Amino acid sequence: MTALDHDFIRDQFPTFAHPETGTWVMSENAGGSYAAKPVIDQFHHFMTATKVQPYWSFAASTETGRNMDRSTALWTAAINAEPEEVMFGPSTSINTYVLAHALRAELNVGDEVIVTNQDHEANSGAWRRLADGNSGIIVREWSVDPETGRLDITKLKNLLNKRTKLVFITHCSNIVGEIHDIAAIARETHAAGARIGIDGVSCAPHLLPDVRALGADFYYFSLYKVYGPHQGLLYVKRDHLERISNQGHYFNAPILGKRLTPAGPQHGEIACAGGVIDYLEEAYTHHLGVGEMPAASPPERMRLIMERFHTHECRQANRILTLLAEKGARIIGPRAAEPHRRAATIAFRPRRGKPQDVVDLLTSRRICCGSGHFYAFRLMTALGIEPDEGVVRLSLVHYNSEADVTHILEALDGAL
């Protein structure tokens, strides 16, 4: 497979040209990636030319509404959803909170909900609260292996029963890094008569979902980790959306795209969200669209370019994983980055010293990273790790070059 053109790619991210920030190696992408140029340009245009209430008949208002609709249409196509199934909210944490309130109305005493202790708290706490008070709802936990942090699907099969109504799982843990076989998990869930909700926050930056192929009932992720603005994208399968409890203004209940948006949308962020797809289209054309048969559909174009990205990321992640293993670090999750099996999100504990000591040394070498529990507090506890001390996390995306990783390896060699 042809290597990525990193000169082209990094030219699409203005941060790399910044005289200070651009001199750092960005390996804290799981906390939020840099924004692509089309996103920045479109947001600047909104703030300077069309920052008005959308959908009125005067020019600036009409343009803003048109750009918001364009973003929704682009993202709907990119993840292979249908019209009205995609909506935006301020964050994934907010979107899951609202979705939990909406689904609560469909649950009865004795109904069961399955969650994991591997997830970010956004895809755990909201669902666990369904059992608060005297609701009579039962929450069951699909628990990780206490050494590796990985999930065994056999444990899920043992939890599923005729009372199970909902299953919630991450597509890829922000600590363990393993990419789950969601299609297989969805088949087990549906066979039990339940529905599945998937947190794609840590997977979407590496592989955008095809929600139809996955069998998702609900899917959600954060655009600010996929080279875009600070927005959460929420997909709800249409037949579920049509019957879901309205969380918006009562007079908007018939409008499916507003049923899970309690407040007014963030116009500018939504208007520029389509810039992510514009960037991916440009990257596709540059790397694959010349001299090759163009893909027939937006999901196929997104799949092909992100496969190219993901392969590069796995290659670079394996360089780091190899060094960590040689140095005796405790690697959380798979010890090798195999495409479609592991994202380039690497969490570890040093053999000697504390995670923050490693972070301090890496930061002194101008490498962006952090330590702690990264909102996977329950996972840390399950792994026998003090959550506040946590792990070191290095997270790569496609714009991280081979030279970036060489610099990380040189710094790690001295830190471990």
What does this structure look like?
With 416 residues, this protein is of the alpha/beta class. It is 40% helix and 13% strand. Strands 2-8-7-6-5-3-4 form a seven-stranded mixed sheet, with helices on both faces. A four-stranded antiparallel sheet has the order 9-10-13-12. Helix 7 links the parallel strand 5 and strand 6 (195-199). The chain is globular, with a radius of gyration of 21 Å. The model has no long low-confidence stretch (mean pLDDT 96).
What's the quick description here?
By secondary structure, the protein is an alpha/beta fold. It contains 14 helices and 13 strands.
Rounded mean pLDDT score: 96
Write the H/E string, N to C.
HEHHEHEHEHEHEHEEHHHEEHEEHEH
Main beta sheet: strand number and arrangement?
7 strands, mixed
Shape: globular
Identify the strand order in the major beta sheet.
Answer: 2-8-7-6-5-3-4
Structural class: alpha/beta
Q: Just name the CATH architecture of the largest domain.
A: 3-Layer(aba) Sandwich
Instruction: Assign the CATH topology of the largest domain.
Output: Aspartate Aminotransferase, domain 2
Could you give the distance between the termini? 33 Å
Helix content: 25-40%
Please tally the helical runs, counting DSSP H or I stretches of 4 or more residues. 14
CATH superfamily of the largest domain: Type I PLP-dependent aspartate aminotransferase-like (Major domain)
- How many domains comprise the coordinates? 2
Strand content: 5-15%
Q: Please give the CATH class of the largest domain.
A: Alpha Beta
> Low-confidence stretches at least 5 residues in length (pLDDT < 50)?
none
Number of extended strands: 13
Radius of gyration: 21 Å
